[in-house]
Input
Amino acid sequence: MKLYQFDLAPASKRVNLFLAETGIEVPVVQLNVRDGDQFEEPYNSLNPFHCIPFLELADGTVISESIAICRFLEETNNASKKLFGKTSKESAIIEMWNRRLEIDGYIPLINGIRNKFERYEGKVLPGTRNDLPQVPAIAKRGIESCRILFERLNGHLNTTLHVAGEALSIADITGYEVVQLAIAIEMNFDEFGEVKAWHKKLDKRFKSYE
Ligand SMILES: N[C@@H](CCC(=O)N[C@@H](CS)C(=O)NCC(=O)O)C(=O)O
Output
């Protein structure tokens, strides 16, 4: 089994935080996606989405998408810590928050960053190289979407220690990366005190794994 990663990328960071939290170990190969390693063979054929992370199993199966990879690793390892929940109810709540964080925050902000900063010219969609123009309005809309998410999250975090309950879950890892993206896109979210406090707590915990 091999996990293909680029440690500086947000999607790889999600998988790395999952591995650090659960103690699961997987052999890792670093691909520099900024230099376009993912378009070179054999990686080009291994993963048609041309993005990291992706996991290659011993039988040749390739699994991409950070959450699919983490879920697979959790289900196939005997780690005592379960970031996807222990009961059907816990799993559903975690999935609900993880999806909302991705749909309303992670994806709009990733698209925003790629449409805002010059270094993404020619790479506005992940895993592509083309001449699609950067559209600044997409960055503005990404921030607007994330602001609505943070308003909801801020109220919710008043009532719970972590996003999907008292225990840390994969949804906290996604949420942490959403805040990292909000910082990267230079969004001001000072008014969301609960979100900031939760992010600060996670930041301390996650930095201790470095
Ligand atoms: N939804 C995917 C996102 C994968 C993705 O967009 N990866 C980016 C890095 S964060 C990538 O490999 N980009 C390469 C490129 O755009 O050329 C996941 O969570 O795994």
Observations:
- The first helix runs from residue 10 to 22.
- The chain has two domains: 2-76, 88-207.
- The helical segments are 10-22, 43-46, 66-76, 88-116, 136-156, 170-184, 193-207.
